[in-house]
Amino acid sequence: MPGETIRKDTPPRVPPHLDDYDEACASFSWEQARSRLQGLPGGRGLNLAHEAVDRHAATDRATAVALRCVRRDDTVTTLTYGDLSRATSRFAHVLRTLGVGRGERVATLLGRCPELYTAVLGTLKNTGVVCPLFSAFGPDPVAQRLRLSDARVLVTTAELYRRKVAGRRTRLPGLRHVLIVGDPADTPQGTLSLTALTDRAADDFTIPPTAPGDMALLHFTSGTTGTPKGAVHVHEAAVAHWTSAYYALDLRPDDVFWCTADPGWVTGMSYGILAPLLHGATVVADEGDYDARRWYRILAQRRVTVWYTAPTALRMLMRTTPRTGPYDLPASYDLSALRLVASVGEPLNPEGVLWGRDVLGLPVHDTWWQTETGAIMIANFAACDIRPGSMGRPLPGVEAAVLRRGEDGRADTSGGRVTVLREPGAEGELALRPGWPSMFRGYLHDAGRTAAAFADGWYLTGDVVRRDADGWYWFVGRADDVVKSAGHLVGPFEVESALMEHPAVAEAGVIGRPDPVAGNVVKAFVTLRPGHEPTPETRRDLLAFARRRLGPAVAPREIDFDPHLPHTRSGKVMRRLLRARELGLPEGDLSALERTETPG
Ligand code: 6R9
């Protein structure tokens, strides 16, 4: 643990929402936090889209800017809260007209265009369930998630539909309607023009009664084995989105907030759409790709005040402008509006925190959370000291613990009990006490894996952490084989399964190999079938095959051939051992290894 602390001794420009951590925790209650939201009139419940949009549209914030979408070509579409309320109502009417109702899944496969925001919030108004998909997924992951979510509707573009969905449409009988964003003249066979439908729809919509526990969002996350898990979130998650943005990001209505995460990931939903709108702030969205100049330009031109990004993105900025200088590039932009920079998704090294302090003039505040937690759980708060390299401390209302681990690296749950480690410096699996409003309500259609995520009254995160004597948490690693690449979780099983569909592949084992920019890159070890040679052509062919099926976000970047992958006695590929060998680390406990070769 690095010893240096960044002290917040200069008074911040705005008085912060949280400056006395202990006081804020002691006086916090979720009951009180709930009262910050309005609820539907007449006690008809709590609806996320009402809180995020219509509530503000009914006040003098109707003319405040809710959303600024920067297109690839730098043109900007601006929607006020009033505009957003009307556009989302039109989308809700479109769904109703199509006979899509309460609880039915509406998937989005879109970049950060205005229609994404209106589809998400319009679905919530109609009490449907939003299932955002990442547009960099290939056809296999998209089809699998559409099937697992039992999606009734998909909102996408003609191009993405042709490339990623059309070829598998017959295998998706549950998918009734595909709504195409963009020019109505380009509406592929079997789809409907969303533009044509919304043009005819009324722009006022009465939100039906919505129970706080009604399902609102379905986010897929990757596990070690099996299919992706669909984490279910409900409307009252709004309370945690609001609270976490209030405390951890110090958000307020006059902020201009930019979250760089793709809306297909939980960060791009909870903080790229919901939390800032719940606060009545302005959301900046960029449709373009990462580029240092472009990003500085957006920060400057849009007068961004709070910026939420990821270590991968920061590392790319660090490459163009090292901390040792010169700072010409960032210095040529006016970043004076910026008052907070925060990060999530993977460990943020102390260097990243200090780079922010020196180059942007603001240290980067690390935050920790997961798809399952729905909102930030642990953070370096805006106005509190920062310990570079630490995830920070639990938010008010969040009870965290470090649990003793068993032989498999996960928390020891033998006899249905866990052991909470209390001593300073304790290292173990991070656990959270269920009860915060954005906690996932289970993995869809998967009671088994849902149950396995809880033990003895705790939710088990799968992350190994250390807690220092003052209660700061430090990330140590993941307890399982799931790979974090460029901030996104990649399930090794999904990649292995795709590779095994190639005729040359007998078996595959997938690991994350540390990478200076992406955090980890996906690397596959492949055993070839007899008759196939481990040549550069085979490698190229496999890489291209995987990329076509899985898309660039998930496909392996490297493939090694290995005639004997290590197995457990129960026949599982030992990814942990592949990784240790790759990195030259100690091989650890090999009691589970099936030894096929004669020793010596
Ligand atoms: C929001 C999100 C969750 C996993 C999590 C952990 C890793 C997230 C982190 C971090 C170290 C941080 N992670 N934030 N690791 N420091 N500040 O990322 O959700 O995609 O579900 O990933 O990401 O391993 O368990 P998700």
Radius of gyration: 24 Å
Helix segment tally: 18
| Helical residue percent band | 25-40%
- C-alpha termini separation: 41 Å
Instruction: Note the overall shape.
Output: globular
Query: Runs with pLDDT <50, length 5+?
Result: none
CATH topology of the domain at 483-583: GMP Synthetase, Chain A, domain 3
Strand order in the sheet with the most strands: 2-1-11-10-12-13-14-15-16
Average pLDDT metric? 93
Characterize the biggest β-sheet.
9 strands, mixed
- Given this structure, which CATH class of the domain at 483-583 is correct? Alpha Beta
| Strand elements, count | 29
Full CATH superfamily name of the domain at 483-583? ANL, C-terminal domain
Structural class given helices, strands, pairing?
A: alpha/beta
Corresponding CATH architecture of the domain at 483-583: 2-Layer Sandwich
Enzyme class: ligase
InterPro entries: AMP-bd_C (IPR025110), AMP-bd_C_sf (IPR045851), AMP-binding_CS (IPR020845), AMP-dep_synth/lig_dom (IPR000873), ANL_N_sf (IPR042099)
Organism: Streptomyces tropicalis
Pfam family, one: AMP-binding_C
